Amino acid sequence: MRILVTGGAGFIGSHVVDAYLAAGHEVAVVDNLSLVGGGRRENVPPQARLYEVDIRSDTLNEVFAEFRPEVVNHHAAQASVKISMDDPLYDADVNVMGLLRVLRACSEYQARHFIYISSAATYGTPAELPLKETSPQNPESAYGITKLAGEFYTRMWHDSFGLDYTIFRYANVYGPRQDPMGEAGVIAIFSHRMLSGEPVRIDWDGEQSKDYVYVGDIARANVLALERGKNETFCLGTGVPTSVNQLYERLSEIVGSRPPIVRAPKRPGDVRLHYFDITKARELLGWEPETDLSEGLQQTVAYFRQVLEQASRG
Ligand SMILES: NC(=O)c1ccc[n+]([C@@H]2O[C@H](COP(=O)([O-])OP(=O)(O)OC[C@H]3O[C@@H](n4cnc5c(N)ncnc54)[C@H](O)[C@@H]3O)[C@@H](O)[C@H]2O)c1
Fold first, then answer.
1. Distance between CA atoms of 276 and 271, rounded to whole angstroms?
2. Which of 52, 253, 305, 311 has its CA at a distance of 20 to 30 angstroms from the CA of residue 107?
3. What is the best residue among 33, 64, 75 to mutate for testing ligand 1's pocket, by most ligand atoms within 8 Å of CB?
4. Where is 124: in which H helix or E strand?
5. Where exactly are the structural domains of the chain?
């Protein structure tokens, strides 16, 4: 299949590109290598064509006209909760106006299937646990609101214009290529800082617990979605919560040192506990996370070790 991955130079999108290529698909990437996200040219393998294009620009239509994607996998986004609160107009510009331009191009150039990436942030404080597809969504950040708006637009586009869709709500995704300099992505931040011999910051009392899912498993779900579970919404996680304190313990064992901890207050909007019920993805997609936390953390540390070694060699 010809698959266009928006945001395919970013952390998760680039793993999705790798998985589609490995499954034998023809892949192109649209990414503006945004200064504030995880987009890097070197994340895109040479077999995938990179269009360095902003999804909000008119050039997007030229990409569709040239590549003629059958499937559009939409990972491009303003993906930071903090930035969304500092600059909600920018967040909505990329996550809503950008999305609408991608959807419009899908219709204009007859793409068949649209894969939209949503987030656990659409739930806000969980009304029930574990969170499932039908749990109430009450987003508490600008990012959560724009991601939820995207879900509604995606379903409306199907109902009104016939574009098949898959919606994935990701839990906390981690793994190689995650930006360790962001304000989120605790596993990347801790791994990078621990390997660099720097202290790590733990907010609140460190007992806040989230569902951490390995990026390779997330990429595999995006491959499965090509064949199964059309016009459905899925929660993707592990179903298992892990606290920040537990992450500190497990990562320091892998790294082989216990860096000092800097304590900080609870961050506004941080949630005490969330984890997903993944029964629907198991049943309809045939998807199951295969990388347990220990293995995923080891892979992540190994990646950052390599990055730091390369940097020290210049
Ligand atoms: N990381 C997580 O835990 C997580 C959880 C839930 C959902 N998501 C979603 O997954 C997707 C990927 O997130 P990520 O963590 O890989 O972040 P990322 O920043 O690494 O990836 C986003 C990509 O989109 C690109 N981009 C941003 N604005 C663009 C624009 N205007 N035009 C073209 N490209 C643009 C960036 O350059 C980057 O490559 C996002 O939609 C995000 O909302 C991520």
1. 14
2. 52
3. 75
4. none
5. 2-173+213-236, 175-210+239-274+291-309
Q: Give the atom of ligand 1 at the shortest distance from the alpha carbon of 37.
A: 19
Residues 127-150 have pLDDT tens digits of 999 999 999 999 999 999 999 999
Active-site annotation holds for 143? yes
CATH homologous superfamily for 2-173+213-236?
NAD(P)-binding Rossmann-like Domain (3.40.50.720)
- Give CATH superfamily name and number for 175-210+239-274+291-309: UDP-galactose 4-epimerase, domain 1 (3.90.25.10)
**Residue 69 · residue 1 · CB < 8 Å:** no
Please choose from 4, 5, 6, 11 the residue to mutate so as to test ligand 1's pocket, defined by most ligand atoms within 8 A of CB: 11
Q: Which residues line ligand 1 (CB under 6 A)?
A: 7, 9-13, 30-34, 37-39, 54-56, 75-79, 94, 98, 117, 119, 170, 172-173
Catalytic residue among 143, 165, 170, 174: 143
How many angstroms is it from 248 CA to the middle of ligand 1? 25
List, for residues 188-223, the tens digit of each pLDDT value.
999 999 999 999 999 999 999 999 999 999 999 999
Please list the residues that pair with 276 across neighbouring strands: 131
CB 234 within 8 A of CB 290: no
Q: What are the average pLDDT values for consecutive 10-residue runs of the chain, which has 314 residues?
A: 98 98 98 89 98 98 98 98 95 98 98 98 96 97 97 98 98 97 92 96 96 98 98 98 98 96 90 96 98 98 96 87
